[in-house]
Amino acid sequence: MRRRLIWGLLAGCLFACRPASENTLNPPTQKILDKLHDLKGKGTLIGHQDALAYGVNWAYEPDRSDIKETVGDYPAVFGWDLGGIGRDKNLDGVPFGKMSQWMRWVHQSGGINTISWHTYSAFDGVDSWTTDHEQVIHMLPGGKAHHRFNQQLDQVASFMHQLRDETGELLPILFRPFHENNGNWFWWGQNHCTTEEYRLLFRHTIDYLKNKKALDNLIVVYSPDTKFNTEEEYLERYPGDEWVDIIALDNYADFRTKTENIEAAIQRLSIVGKIAKSRNKLAALAETGRENLDADNWFTEKLLPVLQANEYTQSTSYVLLWRNGRPDHFFAPYPEHESATDFKSFYANPKTWFLNDFARGNAVASGE
Question: Is 169 a catalytic residue?
Answer without folding.
Answer: no
